[in-house]
Design brief:
Oligomer: single chain
Strand content: over 45%
Shape: globular
Distance between the termini: 13 Å
Mean pLDDT: 93
Number of helices: 1
Radius of gyration: 14 Å
Number of strands: 10
Helix content: under 10%
Length: 119
């Protein structure tokens, strides 16, 4: 899970939602490049919106939600769950770090997932 650059140069984020967290809890993406999100839920209906962007989707168990967006500006956004999913819902959020494209590509290694969570 996390962000990877495919052999075709496309940037894909893979993430999973579960009560009451997202995995990975911090996502790294490039600015000014198309980014495809592929996400699902393990247990209940969840959803997310990324800060002031148009990234907004619902996550349903058994279904992989897929959409592509472009982040215009480098910076950090909060990514809260926007579908009530139980008593811990209010604490369910992740972060999205948008890096300049050149900085992102310098960090991205072929075949590896990128995340802003320390290893």
């Amino acid at each position: 899970l996390g962000t990877a650059v495919g052999p075709d140069g496309k940037v894909v984020v893979r993430l999973v939602a579960q009560q009451y967290s997202f995995t990975p809890p911090c996502i790294v993406v490039p600015a000014d490049m198309p980014v495809t999100f592929r996400a699902t839920s393990t247990d209940a209906i969840h959803g997310f919106i990324v800060g002031t962007t148009n990234a907004n989707t619902m996550l349903i168990p058994g279904f992989v939600a897929t959409f592509t967006t472009t982040f215009a500006q480098p910076g950090e956004h909060l990514m809260p769950c926007h579908e009530y999913c139980g008593t811990g819902h209010e604490a369910m959020w992740a972060r999205v770090q948008v890096l300049p494209a050149t900085e992102f590509m310098a960090k991205a290694k072929p075949g590896e997932r990128l995340s802003c969570v320390p290893r």
